[in-house]
Write the structure tokens for this entry.
Amino acid sequence: MQAESFFSENIRKALKNDPPGEWMPAVPHECIRLHSGYPDPALVPYEQLKKAASDLLEEERDLPLHYLGSPRINALKKQIQDRLSARGIHSSDDELMISSGACQAIDLIARILIDDKTAVAIESPSYMEALEIFKNYTPHIMSIPSDEDGLQTDQLESMLEERKRKGLVLPRLLYTIPAFQNPAGTTMSAKRRTHVLQLAETYDFLILEDDAYGELGFTDFPPPLKAMDQDHRVLHVGSLSKIAAPGMRIGWITGASKFIRALSWFKKDLDHPFSQTVTAVYLQQTDFNERLAVIRDTYRTKCAVLISALTQYVPESVSWHVPKGGYFVWIKVPGADTSALLTQALSQGVSFVPGKYFFLDPQDGTEFLRLSFSYADKNSIVKGVQSLGSILKQNVRS
Amino acid sequence: MQAESFFSENIRKALKNDPPGEWMPAVPHECIRLHSGYPDPALVPYEQLKKAASDLLEEERDLPLHYLGSPRINALKKQIQDRLSARGIHSSDDELMISSGACQAIDLIARILIDDKTAVAIESPSYMEALEIFKNYTPHIMSIPSDEDGLQTDQLESMLEERKRKGLVLPRLLYTIPAFQNPAGTTMSAKRRTHVLQLAETYDFLILEDDAYGELGFTDFPPPLKAMDQDHRVLHVGSLSKIAAPGMRIGWITGASKFIRALSWFKKDLDHPFSQTVTAVYLQQTDFNERLAVIRDTYRTKCAVLISALTQYVPESVSWHVPKGGYFVWIKVPGADTSALLTQALSQGVSFVPGKYFFLDPQDGTEFLRLSFSYADKNSIVKGVQSLGSILKQNVRS
């Protein structure tokens, strides 16, 4: 029996274009993990979640362990609505759905909107997992450059104008991470936010706003695109992964009710009553604004430690963007092939993510690498950058 | 903005054919819930899961709360492999994946195999959620009748022969619940099991074996189809929902590694580290064979209570199948419209599922209804059947 002959046509194409598993080499356990997009272990509220799970099952017994869980699932929805509301996003019950993290949310949105005749626009560089998801649905992906102010909306406009003039397929969806971007760390300026919403109306596309880092601004947070979305063109995706615990898999989508209804219909893993109700109890038992202040303080400090180590230990030709929030510092190493450097770095006890994974055309990422200040502790960050610095000194043009 | 214009073509078709939300009317809280496919509340191990969650987080702290969780995720896989192995299914690590319950497993399998040019065969009646999933992918669904011995494989063969002769599209996948079927409660005979595997080879299709009730035989369990699957044509789907707690959302798929690899690639909710590791600890701390013996005893007794109440309280013309395992009794009420009867039943404090939901053509289910002995307690089962009996007496031909 030939397994391949049973795959549906699109799946066969997707598997052919993108053989699964092309990803980072294994990072040895003893390495300083500057590649990791994990939260700081000390900020993962395991004691509180333990208490929440225990209190929940003590009080509600089998209830949260059935298919539909307990009414506390609605409490989680309400808590998310309240948090969004404080940021200018007002969503009714039928405009919000819980997902298993942001990844499932992005996949579901692609599922209902995108097929192989449809196009998606992404900012470049972009979150690799989203890139992989879109590749599963369509070969038509357009990459729009970004700079210190995020997505270059004038470039997006030129692209749209040109394609319209030539009668080419226009994107149905733009995927963007406007706040504290992964991997670039940049934040879209207010002017560009207004511009991109205008373009969505003019050229009739939707925006998938991936807001996974949106509340992780060191000093302030810009209002999300969704808060400015008069024409209901934004599907806003959020997650507790970066501010609570990724292992709980709690994310959400807010948008026009017609989209939410379709998304719910195609979400066939049912819900996750246990995770969701434990999380609801955790949020009930926590002053989350206070908690977020601690989280932001921690990452601000760790980011400063990373930046200061970079200043001290890497060659002058290496440059980076200083982020105002999030988890990542995006680094340019002129003339380097960061994939090759990674092998050396791993053997010397430090990891990073080579730039190539964040681009539609991997070549565009050769000189770049992503460092994370979220997971490693401050001493490790300094030691890691020291090691990295000495590798870079041997490898870059000065 | 017109939301509909953004949906991809297939999704637009699926939404048009099957408007979401066509499902059971709300069941009042005080009703005796004979419609429910929930496990018995007394059999949901909430105390043990509470202890498991607590022990896990005490010992491993933040580890199981990160994206990849702790090594205990592999322990869960190993535990499932061991249980499958005891039933004659030997799967290596790359032949097994964990899913969020059986529903996500069925959806993922449909996702990689089925598109609108591909056909699926199902036994009739069948699990409504699977039916809804397949309808999301293809309009080509073929319904094969079943009787007391399960799927009528001779009818399947005739259908295949005829379609082949006429040059019509043949099914790529057969969906079946061979053990203690939902809703019919029937079990496929040994002879038919051999036959269906032969047909799969001859007519080159795959079999999705939904084994959600496979370990819930009251006296013995037949070996799964997968245990007889020489030609690697069976994708075996299992779940802990019916024997532990559905709210943990633990299911799995075993099959040829090429399928498992593709399924993993398209499963974009990542994994569920917290649920999975808590479950792994629960299984570690439990003698699960002993546990299963208790569960089977309980359901055997409750089934007997239901059957005895039926014998006592419903009119003679009403007939049913006595199941040898599982959760359900499938009932024929000659001349009745069970959908109409439900309204009356709900107002008199008892629920059931009308037959129409389990058929491709709802008309075929008009005279049928599904009762469940899993959720309600024994006294409630008797009271519920009494109420149902008096409603039926007023409504059936005698």
Observations:
- The mean pLDDT of chain B is 95.
- The CA atoms of residues 157 and 199 of chain B lie 7 Å apart.
- Chain B has twelve helices and 14 strands.
